[in-house]
């Protein structure tokens, strides 16, 4: 029987505020745009153009196209293997922006 790790669950508004604060600091640290996932709206056409298993495997949500680059929202901009693999899988250069993990997964 599988168990669920509940150590990082956001269960209260205070937890969520702390998570957003950490996410904003990380975005600033990596000099990435931060997207408020409460305000985020999915571009349905773009969303359907990306394989769902790819989004689930790498934990990202497509945000928009910027020329040939696909702009995606990630919760961990320091995951360099994921960045390299995505560039190959998407066959176009990804450009990353940052969103909090809870909301990125919930979207």
Structure, described:
This protein is of the alpha+beta class and 107 residues long. It has a single domain, classed as Type II secretion system, protein E, N-terminal domain (GMP Synthetase, Chain A, domain 3), CATH 3.30.300.160. It is built from 5 helices and 3 strands. The protein has helices spanning 13-29, 44-48, 52-58, 80-90, 101-106; strands spanning 60-66, 69-74, 94-98. The chain has a 3-stranded mixed beta sheet with strand order 1-2-3. The longest helix has 17 residues, at 13-29. 18% of the residues are buried.
Task: Fill in the keyword field for this structure.
107 residues, alpha+beta, GMP Synthetase, Chain A, domain 3, 3-stranded mixed sheet, 5 helices, 3 strands
Looking at the overall shape, the CATH architecture is 2-Layer Sandwich
The low-confidence parts are 1-6, 102-107
CATH H-level homologous superfamily name: Type II secretion system, protein E, N-terminal domain
Strand-pairing-aware structural class: alpha+beta
Judging from the principal axes of the Cα atoms, what is the shape? Answer: globular
Number of domains: 1
Helix run count? 5
The number of strands is 3
Offer a concise description of the structure.
The chain has five helices and three strands. The protein has helices at 13-29, 44-48, 52-58, 80-90, 101-106, and strands spanning 60-66, 69-74, 94-98. Strand 2, helix 4 and strand 3 (94-98) form a beta-alpha-beta unit.
Question: What secondary-structure arrangement, pairings included, does this model have?
Answer:
Elements lengths: L12 H17 L14 H5 L3 H7 L1 E7 L2 E6 L5 H11 L3 E5 L2 H6 L1
Parallel strand pairs: 2-3
Antiparallel strand pairs: 1-2
């Amino acid at each position: 029987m599988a168990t669920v790790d509940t150590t990082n669950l956001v269960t209260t508004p205070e937890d969520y505020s702390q998570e957003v604060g950490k996410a904003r600091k990380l975005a600033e640290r990596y000099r990435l745009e931060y997207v408020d996932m409460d305000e985020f709206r999915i571009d349905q056409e773009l969303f359907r153009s990306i394989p769902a298993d790819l989004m689930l495997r790498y934990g990202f949500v497509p945000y928009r196209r910027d020329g040939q680059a696909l702009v995606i929202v990630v919760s961990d901009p320091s995951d360099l293997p994921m960045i390299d693999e995505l560039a190959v899988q998407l066959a176009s250069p990804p450009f990353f922006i940052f969103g909090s993990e809870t909301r990125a997964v919930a979207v």
